């Protein structure tokens, strides 16, 4: 199954909204999630876990806390999907 970048952005945005509780209208793709109130490390780990399950990929532990924005997560998902397709 192929996923368009727009679909991935939409899905990741919805996951961030559900797991961290930030209103969707405040979630720009380049928003630095590290500075958002309520985005503690536990919520970030739960969010990443949901992204991994949604796309059937694994994000390396050392990479998780380097992800700053939805765009970073989207690029990581795209890379994981591309690697899985090989």
TrEMBL record:
Domain Carrier residue range list: 3-81
Alphabetized PROSITE patterns for the sequence: CARRIER (PS50075)
Protein name: Phosphopantetheine-binding
